[in-house]
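call fold(seq) -> tokens
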Amino acid sequence: MPAADHMTAASPAANPPDQNALEVGGVSKTFHVGARQVQALQQVSFRVRHGVVTGLVGPDAAGKTTLLRLAAGLLVPDAGTITVLGMDATTQSLAVQGAIGYMPQRFGLYEDLTVQENLDLYADLQGVPELARGERYRELMHMAGLEPFTKRLAGQLSGGMKQKLGLACALVRQPSLLLLDEPTVGVDPLSRRELWEIVYRLVREQGTSVLLSTAYLDEAERCDEVVLLHEGRLLAQGTPAALRDTMRGRTYEIAATNIEKRALQYRIAQAPGVLDSLIQGDHIRVVMVDNSPPNLGILLPGVSGIEMAPVPPRFEDSFVALLKEKSGNEEISRAPLADKTLTDLTHADAGKPIIEVHNLQRRFGNFYAVKNVTFSVGKGEVFGLLGANGAGKSTTFRVLCGLLPPSGGTLRVAGADLRLAAAAARARIGYMSQKFSLYGNLSVVENLRFFANVYGASVYGLSGKQGTSRINWALEEFDLAPMAEYTSGDLSLGYKQRLALACALMHEPEILFLDEPTSGVDPLARREFWSRINALAERGVTVMVTTHFMEEAEYCDRLAIMAAGEILTMGTPASIKAQARSEELREPTMEDAFVGLIKAHEQQEAAA
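ret:
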């Protein structure tokens, strides 16, 4: 039985089922940003039941953080009411804040203080009596798995450990309602599971009511109930199972022996009657518009060797269906980028090594962040680099981009030796970071012009007419022309993502490095992004990606999973998932495989 289902069965005893921990009625909130007016919430109404976990689900800019701040009495709504534990959050904000726990996205840990000192500070702020602290600290440290680290500086903890310490600080005084704003953002799947275990235990053992926001749709399935938000409006509220069941009979898995998976996914996406299609390892996961079984002759005319089987629906299917219904079912899967916009790479070169790494080492003082890492990536391949926080993947990534010098080993990128000719290698790669590396105070076209000028100093010479041509290409290809004069900092996350990718492609690179490229964006923006990346790979551009989003790893041709600076395993998504298969876990997910490998490595290290 899934943990969330078990939690629902075990937890309601302390509170009558007709009572609500939080009630939101017709709430609207507007912010003024310069001369612009931003409608963060529009007539939102929902309730959070006692003693369960309710997920506040939606992409960046959906209104999740605004709602949580309103519920915590930190903001005042323009219209509507918010009742928290029977109190008005507007007129009784201090009383509300004394009864709840609240962990914002960037929880205020003091990195120069130890774990223990952070706990003491928050106990002081929350007025916890000295006599009550000892037992509470022991309970929280045991729950968070931080007992051995109470004397360590908070700044020296891993990302996942910092999140768990932040949660512990929010719980120093036992709250009746706990508000968590994306507590798992930026942490690896193992740390995410550990954080969820803490949340489950709070609800099960202490009857805590939890409202938790998340952009991860797989996390929504762990909740008892979900509230779906998009662009400040309520899309739906219900149990994940009820929303998932609306898609029953509409989901399939398709594979074909004589067509490459990216081409197969693109053809399926264009077929009539298809709502959604995703690459999942060697298969394409297809969601139909209705319950009519797919007609393979219409879906894939002229294609032989097709295998098709029904598969259970997922929560994400229902969310995507709701989003597309809201947007008028507009087509999301764009045509591949035109040939003239891409580097002219021939299929004869497909698979030829373009990134070669042998015994890579990167040392910081006496600490080896990366040690003896060896792998190669072929031209036109999509290669994923995964790992827990602190595994060394980001360091490896930065070394390959020429942003950090290696301490040892040999590296060749696009034919250039990184130890001898890093600048030459950098001129042939594009880089898109998680924060998108955009200049927020510059307009869209000014950002494009800046990156064109930067690359104008390289061998590609993007200056004058050629630079103007590339800017016009980017505005047209990425549908940025209508907002060319918008300040990039004011763009939605989806448009920032488009602009960042356009900037990274200005000089038509042979290799594209993507660092957490879809963090926080909605499922439709993620699909559009990957349709572009797949088109680039089809044309021969090599793509390296780091991600904590395990579904995204399925897009990769091969993956390397790292821990403690070393590669634990490398292979196709299907082969890595097969390593986790057992009698108890017959169809493991990528997350199951990832967590299993990391835990096995930790056990080996502990036994050594």
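Confidence is low (pLDDT under 50) at residues 1-17, 329-346.
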